[in-house]
Amino acid sequence: MALEAHSAAIAAQFDYTDDQVNSAVNEFRRQMTEGLETDGTSLSQIPTYVTGVPNGTEKGLYMAVDLGGTNFRVCSIQLNGDTTFNLTFSKVAIPRELMVAKTAQELFAFLAKQVELFLQTHHEDHFEQHVRRRMTMSSPDGYKDEHVFRLGFTFSFPVQQVGINKGTLIRWTKGFDIPDAIGKDVCALLQDEIDKLHLPVKVAALVNDTVGTLMARAYSAPGKASTVLGAIFGTGTNGAYVEKLSNLKKPLSGEYDKTTGEMVINTEWGSFDNKLSVLPNTAWDAALDKASPNPGIQMYEKRVSGMFLGEILRLVIIDLLKDPKVSFFRDENSSSNDWKSTTNIVSDSSIYTQWGLDTAIMSVAAADNTPELSTLRGELEKQLGIYSAGLDDAQAFKAIANAIGRRSARLSAVSIAAIVLQTGKLTDPAYADEPIDIGVDGSLVEHYPYFRDMIYEALRTIDGIGEEGAKRIRIGIAKDGSGVGAALIALVAAGMEKRLTTADYLGELRSNAKRNNLTVVPEGGETAAQD
Ligand code: BGC
């Protein structure tokens, strides 16, 4: 079969029809309900103890760190109280060996060191006090309370949360694998290492990145409808949404504020439908799963998120390269190559190694509409050592890559739609004509061309949403959301420490909101935050 027909047939295996999208939405909603009722289900539906979203009036200087994918980020955030903030951050790649370290301590010591470097670079005043103290004292105690930074810890892995700054790791995802950390309180692990360096920092809140994204979006885009969902489509994927407490049937162990009648739920939707009742499963999906560190788990994430799309494509390409019936990245002689050369793949090309194809090249393929696909061909050479790829090769590469990317976007529409329908806001007259606001972050949704357009295209075909509903759904980027969100939750936690009552805090928020003509959705917590 000619290459063009062959690649079209492969691309077709990644089609996910409107009917399939609709059945998946129904199944997603069923699994959501199941997760709200029982522990240990496919969709974990983890209660976060955060019982409201911010309204933009919060103020203060907080720190946040973010561990969740390829990079570790440290930031400080000045919340200005008028829906704006100022953010300073540093970012460092996590060394691969630490992702699979023998002990949790090795990883967390590295993280604490980055916090120290950040303070040294960006908050010299705090850092100097720390150096003086380190020379004169052996204990971190004795800092004046106002000199201790409250830090929100965004930890983007499934955690059983038992309080605002306490939670045990359920399982690793996204290529991390340090069995020693499973079942341990990740806040305590970080605090111990921070204390060893005598830093004036207190880990005040534990936050999943999706919860942070939801908080950040709600802070920046307050309004009547408020934000209903924070979602990540990046290295991994997940979403957190605001659920009615009356729907949350499984028992909760920690204390929380019941007055709002709501709680933010971390769905951990990466593990939606691990049994594959509605998810697609090509031979390449199955091969990827089999070779992964966590077979049978995170099955939705393995079809949607950035860490995996490149690997699916790589596995397809390897099969094509081995197929004697198709001539892919291979020329009989220079006359069959439009550049009048012959294609060569260097023997140490990363195409031959697991995870060796970076998903970013799929964005290049989707964006390249030049007649000769010259940008894509340049990247194939630069990133994968594929020299003089022919136009037909590049077209086949692009067709298959696009099909994998499109399937990911259509699958992403499934979780978004299910949650929008679950909130009931599309049909609630109280919200008539109001936008249904969704905050998203992550490399895929930010950089993959037309990702959001493809999500909207699928949303329009979903029962209960349709053209009209899709128009009301506002999907907006909440860039760096998790850091800002973690700071907002650290603020709640700082208030809790100061033992303000919930009534004090809500009263303050309400009067602020009145001044600013906003609708208050109060912050959660047993007690409350202050400026
Ligand atoms: C993790 C989630 C996280 C998501 C996005 C997933 O692998 O399980 O906790 O929110 O990645 O970072």
UniProtKB/TrEMBL annotation:
<dbReference type="GO" id="GO:0001678">
    <property type="term" value="P:intracellular glucose homeostasis"/>
</dbReference>
<dbReference type="GO" id="GO:0005829">
    <property type="term" value="C:cytosol"/>
</dbReference>
<feature type="domain" description="Hexokinase N-terminal">
    <location>
        <begin position="9"/>
        <end position="219"/>
    </location>
</feature>
<feature type="domain" description="Hexokinase C-terminal">
    <location>
        <begin position="229"/>
        <end position="492"/>
    </location>
</feature>
<dbReference type="GO" id="GO:0006006">
    <property type="term" value="P:glucose metabolic process"/>
</dbReference>
<dbReference type="InterPro" id="IPR043129">
    <property type="entry name" value="ATPase_NBD"/>
</dbReference>
<dbReference type="InterPro" id="IPR022672">
    <property type="entry name" value="Hexokinase_N"/>
</dbReference>
<dbReference type="GO" id="GO:0005739">
    <property type="term" value="C:mitochondrion"/>
</dbReference>
<comment type="pathway">
    <text>Carbohydrate degradation; glycolysis; D-glyceraldehyde 3-phosphate and glycerone phosphate from D-glucose: step 1/4.</text>
</comment>
<keyword id="KW-0067">ATP-binding</keyword>
<keyword id="KW-0547">Nucleotide-binding</keyword>
<dbReference type="GO" id="GO:0008865">
    <property type="term" value="F:fructokinase activity"/>
</dbReference>
<dbReference type="GO" id="GO:0005524">
    <property type="term" value="F:ATP binding"/>
</dbReference>
<dbReference type="Pfam" id="PF03727">
    <property type="entry name" value="Hexokinase_2"/>
</dbReference>
<keyword id="KW-0808">Transferase</keyword>
<keyword id="KW-0324">Glycolysis</keyword>
<dbReference type="InterPro" id="IPR022673">
    <property type="entry name" value="Hexokinase_C"/>
</dbReference>
<comment type="similarity">
    <text>Belongs to the hexokinase family.</text>
</comment>
<keyword id="KW-0418">Kinase</keyword>
<dbReference type="InterPro" id="IPR001312">
    <property type="entry name" value="Hexokinase"/>
</dbReference>
<dbReference type="Pfam" id="PF00349">
    <property type="entry name" value="Hexokinase_1"/>
</dbReference>
<dbReference type="GO" id="GO:0004340">
    <property type="term" value="F:glucokinase activity"/>
</dbReference>
<dbReference type="InterPro" id="IPR019807">
    <property type="entry name" value="Hexokinase_BS"/>
</dbReference>
<dbReference type="GO" id="GO:0006096">
    <property type="term" value="P:glycolytic process"/>
</dbReference>
<protein>
    <recommendedName>
        <fullName>Phosphotransferase</fullName>
        <ecNumber>2.7.1.-</ecNumber>
    </recommendedName>
</protein>
<dbReference type="GO" id="GO:0005536">
    <property type="term" value="F:D-glucose binding"/>
</dbReference>
